[in-house]
Amino acid sequence: MSLQISSVRSGFVGEISGIDIAHPLDAATIAALWQAIDRYAVLVFRGQRLDDESQMAFAQQFGELEIPRSGQADVKRRLRPEISDISNLDPENHLRGRDDPRRFDQLGNRLWHTDGSFRRVPACLSMLYAHRVPGPSPVGNGETEFADMRVAYDTLPNDTKSEIADLVALHDIAWSRAQLGFSQLLFGEKQALPPVPQRLVRMHPGSGRKTLYVAAHASEIVGWPLPDGRLLLRELMEHATRQEFVYGHVWREGDLVIWDNRCTMHRGRHFDERQVRDLRRVTTRDTASTLEQVA
Ligand code: OGA
Ligand code: MN
User: Fold this and answer.
1) Is 266 in the pocket of ligand 1 (CB under 6 A)?
2) What is the Cα–Cα distance from 58 to 233, expressed in whole angstroms?
3) How many structural domains does the chain have?
4) Helix or strand holding residue 200 (H, E)
5) Is 239 in the pocket of ligand 1 (CB under 6 A)?
6) Is the dihedral of CA 105, 106, 107, 112 positive or negative?
7) What is the pLDDT of residue 221?
8) Which CATH number does the domain housing residue 250 bear?
C-alpha cells in the first residue's frame, strides 16, 4: 500500500496520493482512509477517473448510501437516483436558466451547511467528484469552502460551551430554502421531511472530539424563544466560519473530495453560470439520530 497523506492545514484537510479509488480497496486501505477522515475531516484525492458506478462502489465501502431528495421524488433527473446532481445542467444536459426552480433549490448550497442534517438519521460522509469545472471568472471560480467544526467548538468561550452543552436544534430543509426567499418545496418534502431534532454539540466517535453541529437548515433551539434560538445559531455559525477555520477547495477535473458531515460545514461559491460545472455527489448515512448518540 503506497497511500500517502499530506496535511493541507494542520489537522484539517488531508490530501491523499498513491491510490486509485476506481477499484475495490483492501481492508487495510479502508482502515487507513477512515483514520485519515477521523483526523482531517476533509480528504482530497486528485486525478481520479470515476464514473457514476465506480463512485458509488467506492462510497459503499464506507457505509450505506443516502438517496438524495430528488432521487426519491417523481421528477425527471439527469443521473441515477443515488447520485446528487451538483451541476447547472438539466436532464437534457443543457445549462439551467436563471429562473429554473431547481437552480433556486441548489442555491441553498451556497449557505453554510452540513449535508442531510434535516434527516432524522443524518448524513455521514459526502463524496463529491468533479467531472467538469468552470474556468476562473470575475464573479468567482466555484470553489467549495469547508469549516472545521471541531476547532470551532474548541475555541468557544467556556461559558458558551456550558450554555449549549445539552441544547437541541430543529433542522428543516424548508428553512434553509426560505432564507433565500425560495418557499417552493420541489420534491414533496413537506410530508417526507418534517423538521427534526439534532444535538447542537456532538461527540465525534472516530476522534473522541466534541464538535458543533449547526447548519443553514437549523431553524430553532428547542425550548427557547424563536428569536433567541436563531440569534444563537447565527452567532455560532459566524464563529465557526471565521477565515482561519476555513479551507477553500479549488476544483480540478478528476478531484474527489470527501467530507465528514458530522464535524464540518461547507458551502459552494459563485461561478460563471454560462459555463458548465458538473460535480456529482454520493453520500453515506450515519447510523442513528444524533439524539441517540453519545454526547
Ligand atoms: C454539496 C454541496 C457545494 C458546491 O455537494 O453538498 O453543498 O460547491 N456542494 O457545489
Ligand atoms: Mn452540501
Assistant:
1) yes
2) 35
3) 1
4) none
5) no
6) positive
7) 98
8) 3.60.130.10
